[in-house]
Structure formats: C-alpha cells, structure tokens
Amino acid sequence: MVVAVDANGADLGPGEVAAGVREAARQGVRVLLFGPAGEFGEMGPRVEVVDAPVSVAKSPDPARAVRSTPDASIVQAARAVGEGRAQALVCAGGTGAALAAGLFNVKRARGIHRPALALPIPIPGPEPVRPVTLLDVGASVHARSEHLVQFAFMGAAFAKAVLGVEQPRVALLSNGAEAERGSETVVEAGLALRARSDGQGLRWVGNVEGGDIVAGVADVIVTDGFTGNIALKLMEGVSQTVLGAVREAALSSLRGKLGGVLLRPSLMAFREQIDPEGQGGAYLLGLRRLAVVPHGRFAGRGFAQAILRAERGAREDLVGATHAALSEAGALRSVPVSADPASLAGE
Fold this sequence. Notes:
Helix content is 44%, strand content 15%. α2 crosses α4. The C terminus is likely disordered.
C-alpha cells in the first residue's frame, strides 16, 4: 500500500509533515510525498518525493483553485490516488482543497450523496474508552435528511471497521433528546433511522445534545458539516483553555507548584488521552479511496498517525466495508445526483 501525502498547508510548514512521513516510513509505510522538495531533507528509501511547491490550501474558492491549478500539490496527490499509484490520501492543508481535489480526481463512490468528514473524538476516563465518531465535521455546510441517514450508516460502518464497535449506537445531534426536537431535517432523519435501525448495522438511540458528545451515550453522532464543525472547534477551544488554566494555576504559587509536581503524571496521562494528534485527524468518507485530513496545526507525530491510519484503512479496505454496509442497509442512492462536484467542494 502507498499513501499519497500533500505537505503544503500545514501551520508549522512542510518540514513538519516530512518529519511525520519519516516516522511513518520507519514503521513500514510507503509514501508518495508531494510538496516543496527543498524543505524536506533526506527522506529515506520508502519515500518517493515529487517536487510540487504550488499550494492552494488557503484558497478562498477551493473548487476553482483545484480546477485551475493542475500542478498544485494536493491536486497531484489526489490524482495519484485516482490513477492507482497510491491507495490512500493524506492532506495537510485545508479541508476545502482536500474535498475538491478528492471529488475531481478520486471521485465519489457509487450511491453516495456526498462525502462526510468523520472524526474519532477521544473520551478521557480511568479505563480505555473507544472514541466517539462525530460526522460530518466540515465536508458540507448543508445536508438534507437523506444525507444525514447516509452519514449515520457511514459512521456506523466506520466505527465497526476502525474502532471495533460491533453494533454502534447512533444518535443525531439536536437541541433536545425528544424525537420531535430539532430542525425539520433532523426530525425527518430521526424517523427514517428509527425505522431502519434494527438488524442493519446500527442501533438507533435517538437525539443527543451537545453536552452528550463526550458522555459515552452513543458511538456515532451525526450532524451537518456546519453544526459539526462549530461543535468541534468549540470542544477544541474549551479543552485548550482548561489545560492552560490548570497550567497557570499550578505555576501561580509555591503550593501550586508542589501540587503540580504530584499531579504531573496524572495530568500528562489525561493530556495524552485527549490529544487530537493521537487520532490522526478526520476521515473523508464517501470517496472511492480513503482520505485522511489531519488538522493543519499538527506536529510530526500527528501527521505520522494520519499516514499510519490511512495505510491501515486502505489495507483493511475501509472504503469497501463502508460501501458494503450502506448497500446492505439500503442506504445508497438509486438515482444519479446531477449536482456538479464543484457545488459540493465549494461549500
């Protein structure tokens, strides 16, 4: 298996992505690395470097940029996957560019309304707890009820194949637990999922509120990309603020410093549990090949995890398993969608 990696767009620069590539290569992964070759250094025998300094990661119109810039690193990386020279894609840049390049070059899988970004969210606790999968976290701003239903089955298939959850508990994110709460789209999707959940690869547990995302009441939580992205950024901001406040309190006095020394092992373990780099980023589901989109602020460890998880997902045919689960559940669309891929990539 070969993983195509786009090194442009990372907050810490292409060199940090290259460090992650070297770590993944040391663990046996073969990588096709696209980006400014002069910033990579020595990469080793398992890495083939393609000099591609042009980046569209920060473009305000990703679809147009991808279409008009065939030599951009993300376009070349996605094309390598679409042509079969690599079996999975990792993009260190913007989500919009990754989605556009994937739609135009890797293509949507048959029967998929639109791709979704699925993110495993770590749940801290004294015992190891499986992450909760939240999707969509930003691939598409808008979603119809049939999209949410398909996201539910995609998320359940992902949780089973990647996280080992035999029959995932699936919920919709809403503003109340009652079935009638939420937008018309959420209510319609809830009715459809309730009717189709028995024996079809998921257990429908109803609506959940924002505070339930990390409460362990569901294994998969489904929402549209607009709401999911806001929820994700809110959780990230709160966790960073809390950790910063704890650090400041520990350093504010001699007593705090002494207590900090005693608590340090537990706090380090807690930080390790909630570290998003350990999950490798979000999985772009719904394409014909797997794509993983790590956060742009990741360091080398996070990019290495993204590459390792992309290689594992390709090796274990996550895309095939997801598509088979959707087909078995009757969740694939039967009528071709006429929308131009640019209409999705630009959202």
